[in-house]
Design goal:
- The chain is mainly alpha-helical.
- Among the domains are: about 45-160, Carbon-nitrogen hydrolase (Nitrilase/N-carbamoyl-D-aminoacid amidohydrolase, 4-Layer Sandwich); about 165-200.
- It is about 50% helix and about 5% strand.
- The protein is built from 24 helices and six strands.
- It has helices at about 20-30, 65-75, 95-115, 160-165, 165-180, 185-200, 245-260, 265-275, 280-290, 295-305, 315, 325-335, 345-350, 355-370, 375-385, 390-405, 415-420, 430-440, 445-455, 465-475, 480-490, 500-510, 515-520, 530-540; strands spanning about 45-50, 55, 80-90, 115-120, 125-130, 135-140.
- It has a six-stranded mixed beta sheet with strand order 1-2-3-4-5-6.
- Helix 7 (about 245-260) packs across helix 24, helix 8 (about 265-275) runs parallel beside helix 24 and helix 18 runs parallel beside helix 20 (about 465-475).
- The longest helix is centred in the first third of the chain and has 17 residues, at about 95-115.
- It is globular.
């Protein structure tokens, strides 16, 4: 979903944008440096929740303050069951008044639509609001934290959803009519009757699983309700292993279960991790080569190639003609690693594709193959135009190209990768990718920068997951500061943020110390499935039979 309603004076200049000269004059007076050049999406609409028939309305930032936008989003293309609002209220500074007022307007949207809302707001206020507009749980503003929301779905409809803005329009018309002296008394009586009838209309049946009761801004206090849960029950792990199983066997059980999970991301992550255990991979990868999801088929091909499982060459060959180009690229990699010597020329064409996803995958595969004859192809890819629809994605592909060239011996393009370590906070994705690449190619000249990211505190401190990635890259370079980095990762295993826990486990897995297995093992029971999978892979690395010096064995 692309934001369809641009915020006046923040993302667009209302009324005067039709006259460039007038807009320029006003910008010069009070908004120098702002361009107001954003483009709105085509229309407000909701999105489907993967794997279910539920739909989620996702107003972005201040869209949740605009009633007609949220109402349309809730209805189009099918009724939504919940509202999720992602917002950045950091520009309110140290004052919480604006944050609280923003939340108040969001609560009215819940009442109008009779839907619960989960708000995730930078600097606050992040909260869970029920369908009656009451805040069930709220995080304190300007503090780090997380909450688990279990919104109750409400099947009722409302008058506002039915008539929209007709009621205030009718009220205005009636007010104007009442201003006419003739028959004012009878008109006033008629108006009163109409308004009473409209106010008494019910938008749906009163029976509902949602909490009953109304809310208004007359009182900002929330009355405790005995039907609401007083505590949040801990979520259960997505994957479980039998009691009494050894840690390594438990990790393998979890990865095996993930290979048949509903979500493709779990299946893809699992097959990538099982490269560390060829026996289990051999049992699972055959089915994944025929998986209906192309990302899973690609990951399975890469796993077969990395593990050099020649047994599966006949199953991989048909994938050279797969309908998905990424899968074809993975099949070329697998067969080349298996000594089949397939035609690699399709990769050259893919590396110049305008589709940045296909281009990035082809470039990655060329780097993994290690064929130095691909260097001119990769250099040419840097000069090829893209579709220009996603500048950030284009820059990411350029960094991937620099990594592939470095793997093939040409390190001349690493300067932009090193520069990515200095990216601003809103471009943390570039910083993370840059750190990963520099660690993969063991760029010793960037070690000091990476260690600086790990050690930075105060105003220059980076998020925990960024510091962990930088530390992991330094570990791959054999840094003397590895013990300190691993100590930081152990502390972050208990973070409240799933992404941080997952990355902490991955960093410890890169360290490969058997002594860290006990620290990682509790994450095998984590309520977040991706954390479980990261922990399982880390345990396989730390328990590799020939991992005696903190490094992971390779083929």
């Amino acid at each position: 979903y692309d934001k369809a309603y641009l915020t006046p004076f923040g993302e667009r200049m209302p009324y005067i944008s039709a006259w460039d000269w007038l807009e320029d004059q006003l910008l010069a007076l009070g908004a120098a440096g702002m361009s107001f050049d954003m483009d709105a999406g085509d229309r407000p609409r909701n999105v489907a929740w993967p794997g279910t028939d539920l739909r989620i309305a996702t107003p972005i930032c201040f869209e949740d303050t605009v009633s007609h936008v949220v109402r349309r989003m809730v209805r189009d293309p099918a009724p939504a069951a919940c509202i999720v609002n992602l917002s950045n209220d950091g520009w309110f500074g140290t004052s919480d008044a604006g944050r609280r007022h923003h939340e108040l307007m969001a609560r009215w949207r819940c009442i109008e639509c009779r839907l619960p809302m989960v708000r995730v707001a930078n600097t606050g206020e992040s909260s869970w609001i029920d369908s009656c507009g009451r805040v069930v749980e709220r995080l304190a503003p300007q503090t780090a934290g997380a909450l688990i929301a279990s919104p109750e779905l409400d099947g009722r409809d409302t008058l506002v959803m039915t008539v929209g803005d007709i009621l205030p329009a009718m009220s205005l018309v009636l007010l104007c009519v009442l201003a006419v002296p003739m028959q004012r008394r009878w008109l006033g009586l008629a108006a009163a009757i109409v308004l009473i009838v409209l106010a008494g209309c019910s938008g749906g049946a009163e029976e509902s699983s949602a909490v009953s009761g109304a809310w208004s801004t007359r009182s900002l206090s929330v009355t405790p309700d005995p039907t609401m849960p007083s505590t949040v029950q801990a979520a259960q792990p997505a994957f479980t292993a039998p009691e009494g199983t050894s840690v390594r066997d438990a990790a393998l059980v979890i990865l095996t279960s993930a290979c048949v999970a509903e979500y493709p991301q779990f299946r893809a992550n699992a097959v990538e991790a099982l490269v560390l255990d060829h026996a289990t991979l051999t049992k699972q990868v055959g089915a994944l080569l025929a998986d209906p999801n192309p990302a899973v088929r690609f990951s399975a091909c890469m796993a077969v190639g990395r593990a050099r499982l020649a047994l599966f060459a006949p199953a991989v060959k048909p994938l050279l003609q797969d309908t998905n180009l990424a899968v074809r690229a993975g099949a070329i990699f697998a067969l080349q690693r298996l000594g089949q010597h397939p035609d690699q020329s399709p990769l050259a064409g893919m590396s110049g594709a305008k589709d940045l996803t296909i281009r990035g995958i082809a470039i990655f595969v060329l780097g993994e193959l290690g064929n130095t004859s691909a260097v001119p192809v990769l250099r040419d890819a840097l000069q090829r135009p893209t579709d220009n629809t996603n500048p950030m994605r284009a820059r990411i592909v350029d960094l991937q190209t620099a990594e592939a060239l470095a793997k093939l011996g040409d390190r001349s393009q690493l300067d932009p990768v090193r520069a990515a370590l200095l990216a601003p906070g809103e471009q943390a994705e570039l910083m993370c990718l840059g750190a990963q690449i520099l660690g993969n190619v063991k760029d010793q000249s960037s070690e000091a920068m990476l260690l600086g990211i790990v050690a930075a505190r105060g105003r220059t401190e980076r998020p925990a997951e960024v510091r962990l990635l930088a530390g992991e890259a330094a570990i791959k370079m054999g840094s003397a500061r590895t013990p300190e980095i691993l100590a930081m990762a152990r502390m972050l295993l208990t973070s409240r943020m799933p992404m941080v826990r997952a990355q902490a486990a991955t960093t410890l897995g890169t360290g490969g110390l058997p002594s860290d297995v006990a620290s990682i093992a509790p994450l095998l029971r984590d309520p977040n499935a991706l954390v479980q999978l990261s922990a399982a892979q880390a345990i396989l690395r730390c328990t590799a039979q020939d991992s005696t010096s903190g490094t992971v064995a390779t083929d």
